[in-house]
TrEMBL record:
Gene Ontology terms, MF aspect: ATP binding; ATP hydrolysis activity; cobalt-precorrin-5B C1-methyltransferase activity; transmembrane transporter activity
UniProt cross-references to Gene3D superfamilies, sorted A to Z: CbiD-like (3.30.2110.10), P-loop containing nucleotide triphosphate hydrolases (3.40.50.300)
PROSITE patterns noted in UniProt: ABC_TRANSPORTER_1, ABC_TRANSPORTER_2
Enzyme class name: transferase
Name used for this protein in its record: Cobalt-precorrin-5B C(1)-methyltransferase
UniProt source species: Carboxydothermus hydrogenoformans (strain ATCC BAA-161 / DSM 6008 / Z-2901)
Organism superkingdom: Bacteria
UniProt-annotated location(s): Cell membrane
Taxon lineage: Bacteria, Bacillati, Bacillota, Clostridia, Thermoanaerobacterales
GO cellular component term, pick one: plasma membrane
Length: 638
């Protein structure tokens, strides 16, 4: 890296006899961000005043691009155009009456033509975001605005080296962020940055290299992640270790931070890593892939845009970018095919090719159909009516939300046909044959994501919710099994921090809660899942156990119900069919009794907890509860 400015044996003694710099040697390299650290009185400001010739050294030499400093007028004029200094207190360098005049001052001194001066003033003020202040008197500005004007006066002269003395001094949070963002943009343009600061965390986050001064001498210089871990250097300069650097080292040593991620320099990233407890990769549902494929095909059909990567949002609030394997069109339709990525979940549809065919239709709206490899519903009680393609409501909504912006206000619409070439073969490995879905797989997903089915890692990630609740000293929580039950909790005005998502690991989460001293839990979940607990099944994943109709049949048997009703329940394909049979027989008043039975079963396992249970149907509506006050607007904590 080319040396821009070189300092050799720099010594400076003030008229009082105080030695401010004592034999300082340092080079400033083109394109770097060098932060000079040291306590008050270390010599930082005095050093900076030498960099553009404001001070002349008592001894030693300075070189600009290999040319030795001369303190004659011509050299200093050239130097001060190339090396701009922004002082700690902007009022010490502002000389003009208005903002625009201040920016123009140095340009006129450099001999710029007047038209060029005002062109440059406008360009600079707009880049700083203070064009509207151009005619404001300097005296009327806030300190943060004055600092921006001082910076602008330097940037207008297009320096190669920008020197900042305590850049964030006197600034509030807003102006600190604004000032640093502007400086970062200048560095990206190729300007070399040298800054002095006593804020060691700031230096760690932004510097490529740090130089530590003490009593006018250079103690050390080098990468911040090396120098700022040296306790000897920090103690000598009366500096503290940056908390982000120390935290990064702890995470790396504990194996939670990968080698290529070290060191972490952003707070957001640090907290992400801290909360990353061996969590496997999330995947996407068939519904999300279908929506992405439909979007890719539609944009190709309508706009001629052949997308190399398709970004799609999910109901869970997580955004994925997927890569098309097929993207082609003819005179009547466009076709996009994307392979499903299940993350670290053992999903039978992992790597299945999901294809969307999109055609124009001569009426408004979006029509969604199933094609080859997508099953057809043949039994009632599912989320999709009999005779329709087994594309569930949430995936249908995802497709519509992705495509509607493309046809707003139009007189014609789009027809979307979803296909899965291997769908019929894959369906034999799913529950579809039992559920009465024939001819292929279902296009599923209520959250749009596939949560990795890894017991240890997933439970640890769920446990973070409990840790947060305990940190907030919350003793009453609402457990939800999935997205629909979460929405029920939100309708009940439950604070977000008190909602704990358990997924299928209800038993594990209840055990952890009992051990952690949680006092009261309301469990909200779909009847088809929660009813399994009546049989003692506490991992509710369908790959672990089903047992819904067996549990309901056993419960009815315990009430002395007729064998005829029990046989009807046992012959159903799903819980919605079973509910219809209960309602038709006038037996749906059993549901609150079933809720109490589930509550007692859970109490037998977790006696240290006070629990209540609320069943929902497949639409998310509450159909039974053990708590009489559970209704819309119910104050969740009593």
């Amino acid at each position: 890296m080319e040396e821009l400015l070189t300092v050799k044996g720099l010594k400076y003694v003030y008229p009082t006899g105080n030695v401010a710099l004592d034999g300082l040697n340092l080079e400033i390299k083109k394109g770097e961000r060098l932060f000079v650290l040291g306590e008050n009185g270390a010599g930082k400001t005095t050093f900076f005043l030498h960099l553009n010739g404001i001070l002349k050294p008592t001894a030693g030499e300075l070189f600009w691009r290999g040319e030795k400093f001369s303190y004659k007028r011509d050299f200093l004029l050239r130097l001060r155009q190339k090396v701009g200094v922004v002082f700690q207190d902007p009022e010490t360098q502002l000389v003009a009456g208005t903002v625009a005049e201040e920016i123009s001052y140095g340009l006129f001194n450099l001999g710029y033509a007047e038209s060029k001066v005002w062109e440059k003033v406008e360009e600079t003020l707009k880049e700083l975001g203070i064009w509207e202040l151009r005619d404001q008197p300097i005296a009327s500005l806030s300190l943060g605005q004055k600092k921006l004007v001082a910076l602008g006066a330097i940037l207008a002269m297009e320096p190669e080296l920008l020197v900042l003395d305590e850049p964030t001094a006197f600034l509030d949070r807003y102006h600190t962020r604004l000032f640093l963002n502007i400086v970062e943009r200048q560095w990206q343009k190729g300007i070399t940055i040298v800054a002095a600061t006593h804020e060691i965390d700031l230096a760690y986050r932004f510097a490529d290299r740090v130089a530590v001064l003490h009593a006018g001498k250079l103690l050390a210089s080098g990468p911040p992640e090396e120098i700022l871990l040296e306790s000897r250097i920090l103690e000598s300069a009366n500096l503290e270790e940056p908390w982000l650097l120390r935290g990064s080292k702890i995470l790396k040593d504990s194996g939670r931070l990968l080698a290529h991620e070290y060191p972490v320099k952003e707070e957001k990233k640090f907290w992400e890593v801290l909360n990353r407890v061996k969590t496997p990769r999330y995947g996407v549902t068939t519904g999300t892939v279908a929506a992405a494929a439909a979007l890719g095909a539609a944009r190709f059909l309508l706009l001629g845009e052949k997308m190399k990567a398709i970004t799609i949002n999910t109901p869970a609030g997580i955004t994925f970018t997927l890569t098309p394997e097929i993207l082609e069109k003819n005179a009547t339709e466009a076709v996009c095919g994307i392979r499903k990525e299940a993350g670290d979940d053992p999903d039978v549809t992992d790597q299945a090719l999901i294809i969307a065919r999109v055609r124009r239709q001569n009426f408004p709206g979006i029509t969604i159909k199933g094609g080859r490899g997508v099953g057809v519903v043949t039994e009632p009680g599912l989320a999709v009516p009999v005779g329709e393609a087994a594309i569930n409501p949430v995936p249908r909504q995802q497709i519509k939300e992705a495509l509607e912006p493309l046809i707003l206000g139009g007189e014609t619409g789009l027809e979307v046909i979803i296909e899965v070439p291997e769908g019929e073969k894959l369906a034999s490995q799913t529950l579809n044959p039992i559920l009465g879905i024939k001819g292929g797989i279902s296009i599923l997903g209520t959250r749009g994501i596939v949560v990795p089915y890894s017991r240890e890692a997933y439970i640890e990630s769920l446990q973070l919710q409990l840790k947060r609740a305990l940190y907030l000293d919350l003793k009453r929580l609402v457990f939800v099994l999935g997205n629909k039950s979460k929405k029920v909790a939100q309708r009940l005005n439950v604070p977000a921090e008190a909602i704990v998502e358990t997924g299928n690991y209800l038993g594990d989460m209840l055990k952890i809660s009992e051990n952690e001293g949680i006092e009261k839990i309301l469990i909200i979940g779909y009847l088809g899942k929660l009813i399994k607990t009546y049989l003692g099944i506490l991992n509710l994943h369908s790959q672990v156990a089903r047992g819904q109709k067996e549990a309901l049949a056993l419960f009815l048997y315990s009430l002395g119900e007729s064998q005829e009703l029990i046989n009807k329940i046992y012959s159903t394909k799903n819980m919605e069919q079973a509910l219809e049979i209960l309602k038709s027989a006038g037996k749906d008043h059993y549901l609150p009794l079933l809720a109490r039975a589930v509550k007692e079963k859970l109490k037998s396992y977790y006696s240290g907890l006070t629990m209540d249970v609320a069943f929902t149907d497949i639409s998310g509506a509450i159909i039974a509860t053990t708590f009489d006050r559970l209704e819309e607007g119910w104050p969740w904590d009593g």
